[in-house]
Amino acid sequence: MGIVLKRLSDRRVTQFWDEGHVLATRMAQDARSPQPKQECCVSRNHLWDLVAVYGAGAKWEAQMPTAVVFNGPVVYVDDQIRVALTSNKQ
Q1: With a cut of 70, which residues of the chain have pLDDT below it?
Q2: Cis amide linkage into residue 65, ω under 30° from 0
Q3: Which of 3, 13, 63, 69 is 20 to 30 A from 53, comparing alpha carbons?
Q4: How many Cα atoms are found within 13 Å in the side-chain-facing hemisphere of 31?
Q5: Residues of the domain holding 65
Q6: Are 53 and 69 in contact (CB under 8 A)?
Q7: What's the mean per-residue pLDDT of the chain?
């Protein structure tokens, strides 16, 4: 697991190992328009291997903000991630 969590080295990236599916459950509950609908990444009724990119200045409050990228797995959406991170540079 340690090697997997070190794959993305951008300082704006945070990776989570969500063993109890707490974050995955919350992300699914809070998903709403204009956030894109994921095309994959559900395993045993939980979001799995999903990438979520949030806009600059997004705040997680009572409800998670809408993501600009919400899909995966990371190997298939790397172009979407790069575009989102480039347009969100602070």
Answers
A1: 1-9, 88-90
A2: no
A3: 3
A4: 16
A5: 4-87
A6: yes
A7: 84
